[in-house]
Structure to design on (417 residues):
């Protein structure tokens, strides 16, 4: 029944909308969300103004023509124009998904996303094009990096280049969950990751760097039993693993601060962890509460709260319902220099969030705008949308995605009026 209603709603919206997400409808269901919140507790981010971002992941590359520079530039320009028209001010582009790079690097091989083969160079510099096109639209651009992941599975990527650090330094990596990951306990790995981030900051006019929620890939004690035995120093396994992640985060933050001072640019380093902070602490071994409350780790934290207002677990718990989990994060101790943003699940539009409680909110055509308004009311610093294709290449849900875009445009326009 939910799917049937969604399809009926989408059909009605298709008649309403002249084009996809880039087009403007004759009227909108989002009128209730263009009214500005009355909260006086809205804080600005470190760059001035609020943070409104779009994630552009490695999954989006299938929608870009990478055959030549002109075609690639045209595709990236269209992406940036859409983000600008939506009222956003930041794009977060995945530049290292698998121990690789979408730019020429002395540390990492070329990504297979460009030519189909890791290590094979294209005839142009994709990241330079992303930076240029973002800035031409007045958008900030952050480089999104997966610090530890080398292979997600046997097939992704299918082969590693001979210059990949996992091949050159097999002692730096560990197999886990069908994939391959850099060892968080290895100090040489930490320096390598940090050097790679610095390379991006110095070679490109990016405005910041973001790590996502991939830290330790497993909880299995055998993953690093030998290293723990040698380095644990009486700490519990969990505390020791968290100390390894903290060491990397602190090292990267200090380097970003140094580059900022030396170049005179305004740079940020942020992390987007899972929305469930219990998972962050106990399974990813990322001490997000420490990063939020203590100077010297990050400029911002952006938990991925990909649940709707009506979301409930099978147990009946509504802890992760949107307003509840946002309030939980907002109540955590936070240093004044650390911003708190929220990741919103645009990919839920039409498909739903698998809530145990039936709800039509993801078929409303205005749920994301409603969430943006709620975040304003609660004093959050901003948000990012996961992900671009979910709004601009949404397949059977394109009409709903178009309505969501229009509702967001109207809300952003009203806020800035």
């Amino acid at each position: 029944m939910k799917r049937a209603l969604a399809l009926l709603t989408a059909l009605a919206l298709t008649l309403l909308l002249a084009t996809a997400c880039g087009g403007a409808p004759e009227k909108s269901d989002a009128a209730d969300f263009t009214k500005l919140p009355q909260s006086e507790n809205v804080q600005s981010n470190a760059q001035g103004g609020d943070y409104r971002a779009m994630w552009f992941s490695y999954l989006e590359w299938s929608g870009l023509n990478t055959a030549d520079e002109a075609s690639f530039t045209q595709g990236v320009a269209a992406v940036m124009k859409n983000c600008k028209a939506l009222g956003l001010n930041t794009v977060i582009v995945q530049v290292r998904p698998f121990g690789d790079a979408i730019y020429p690097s002395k540390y990492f091989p070329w990504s297979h996303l460009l030519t189909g083969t890791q290590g094979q160079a294209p005839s142009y510099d994709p990241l330079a094009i992303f930076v240029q096109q973002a800035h031409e639209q007045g958008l900030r651009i952050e480089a999104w990096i997966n610090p530890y992941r080398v292979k997600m599975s046997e097939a992704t990527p299918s082969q590693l280049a001979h210059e990949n650090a996992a091949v050159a330094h097999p002692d730096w990596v560990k197999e886990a969950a069908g994939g391959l990951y850099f060892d968080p306990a290895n100090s040489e790995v930490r320096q390598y990751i940090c050097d790679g981030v610095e390379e991006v900051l110095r070679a490109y006019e990016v405005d910041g760097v973001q790590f996502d929620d991939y830290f330790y890939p497993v909880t299995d004690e055998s993953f690093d039993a030998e290293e723990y035995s040698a380095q644990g120093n009486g700490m519990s396994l969990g505390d020791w693993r968290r100390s390894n992640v903290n060491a990397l985060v602190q090292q990267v933050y200090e380097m970003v601060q140094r580059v900022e001072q030396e170049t005179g640019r305004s740079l940020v380093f942020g992390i987007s962890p899972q929305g469930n902070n219990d998972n962050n602490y106990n399974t990813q071994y990322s001490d997000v509460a420490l990063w939020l409350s203590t100077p010297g780790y990050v400029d911002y934290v952006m938990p991925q709260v990909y649940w709707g207002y009506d979301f409930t677990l099978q147990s009946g718990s509504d802890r992760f319902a949107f307003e509840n989990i946002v309030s939980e994060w907002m109540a955590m101790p936070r240093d004044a220099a650390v911003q708190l943003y929220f990741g919103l699940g645009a990919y839920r539009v039409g498909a739903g969030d698998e809530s145990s409680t039936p709800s039509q909110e993801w078929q409303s055509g205005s749920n994301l705008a409603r969430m943006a308004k709620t975040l304003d009311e609660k004093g959050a610093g901003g948000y990012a949308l996961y992900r671009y294709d979910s709004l601009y290449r949404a397949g059977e849900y394109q009409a709903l995605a178009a309505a969501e875009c229009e509702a967001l445009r109207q809300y952003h326009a009203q806020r800035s009026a």
Q: What stands out?
A: The two ends are 40 Å apart (CA to CA). The first strand starts at residue 51 and ends at 56.
